[in-house]
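Study this protein:
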Amino acid sequence: MTLTASPNAPRTAFAKLRVVLEMIKIEHTLFALPFAFTGALLAAGGLPTLKQAALIGVAMVGARSAAMAFNRLVDRDYDAKNPRTATRALPAGLLTVPFVAAFTVASSALLIGASALLNPLALALSPVALALVFFYSLTKRFTAWSHAWLGIALAVAPVGAWIAVRGTLTEWTPLLLGAAVVCWLIGFDIIYALQDTDFDKKAGLNSLPAKYGAKTALTIGRVAHAAMIAFLVLTGVAAHLGAWYFAGVALAAILIGIEHAIISPTDLKKLNIAFFNVNIAVSTGLLVFTALDIFL
């Protein structure tokens, strides 16, 4: 347990900020943020107010930062034993446990504060959102379907953004979009988990690749991604969207197909491309085509 700073700890505020941003994988915010703003566009039937958009962004950053910091806290012993993760901030001694714990609390407060400025329902549900994103970090200890729990955690983004704009949750549109996000996450998190299959087995952690093998896990991932496309179609129908939106869904389907085509159980050389680049294109593309549909 890293309670005091090690000689490796960053010595300047800028260096520490870089370590913190790396710890929370700030670039991965691009997975969730486009879906959050897609939910906001659909809820508003156009552009949300500048205040709503800003607070949705702040709430998203707070929720995701809290989730990642909490994950690093509870997984620090596993991370220290895994060669792939041993250089992360806590096992490497770049940050201390008290600092990361305080960062988690501050990030949680950021989410709750932004929610309070949005509307009463957003505030009331903000602890539920935190519970969901925190709970994911514990799921690999008891279920191979931890990927689904991560999907549920990320689905908070579009559903929460809808609530931020509308102040209610009485329509199917945000729930269908949230279901699409759950299936999307299951599919691509399985791909990401392939690189830790051997370690998970040795450490007693659960994942679909560790339980069923890479080939079967990838098949489950393809089924999940097919379900994602179906839920996106249903979202468009429920929201009465048109040709631009469905063109975006078709593009997402093509990109998902490419993602699976470049990954095989025995060749993970293009895993980072499949995990990061393709999925950024999927979420951003859907946001762009949804905006085009609404405004054109």
User: Anything to note?
Assistant: The chain has a mean pLDDT of 93. The longest helix spans residues 50-74. The CA atoms of residues 201 and 210 lie 6 Å apart. DSSP finds 13 helices and no strands in the chain.
